[in-house]
Prior knowledge:
The protein is α/β, with parallel strands linked by helices and about 240 residues long.
Amino acid sequence: MSGPRAIIFDFNGVILDDEPIHCATMQEVLAEEGYRLTEEEYRRDYLALDDRGAFAAVLRKMGRPATGPVLADLIRRKGTRYRARMQEAYRLFPGVANFLRAAAGRVRLAIASGAHRDEIEAALVRADLTSCFAAIVSADDVRRMKPDPEIYRTALDRLNGATPRPVPPIAPSRCLAIEDSMAGVQAAQAAGMPCVAVTNSYPAEALGFAEVVVPSLAGQTPGGLWRAATDGARGAPGRRKGR
């Protein structure tokens, strides 16, 4: 196999460099509720969760009920702050735009992210990358978040639904996932997809169970990552087999 038939990307921490903003805005909202959230705690416990899951987990830790109206208010307040910050601090990770545009001309691309759809779509429009993706699956589209594989399975189903017939459906084993968190890697692998982990959010040691670990997508190619993930390649610069 010379390359994948599809690539599914996480968004925050892989394409958009906004995890520090998610952390800061969550800290601000929780401070108003009397809870001090540290950056270490955010990365350890909440980075891989969507807003609803993260706030619900903190409320449980605080001994407070995570009711629908309470969660909706916290999410709204964080979203307002996030959108304001992103007007000033928007940026993609180095090399990502070039990687996406090159990959889109070869394979089908999708996003599987715990972010909200409006945040994803606004960022893609701003970066002029919307046309690169055949499918977007967000926190608004699934019931179970990573490490559950539902979001990756849904993204692949949508890619297959958008693929002209009579092309054979894309099997999970021919789909490459790109992630930045442990929960994300677990979700992709549970969906039957080889996974590349990028060390944008966690050190390589924490992500070592991924098929491939790289420091950046800059200078990478879909074919090169695929070969490293599927043929046991070792020793290439910036790559490490996780098992």
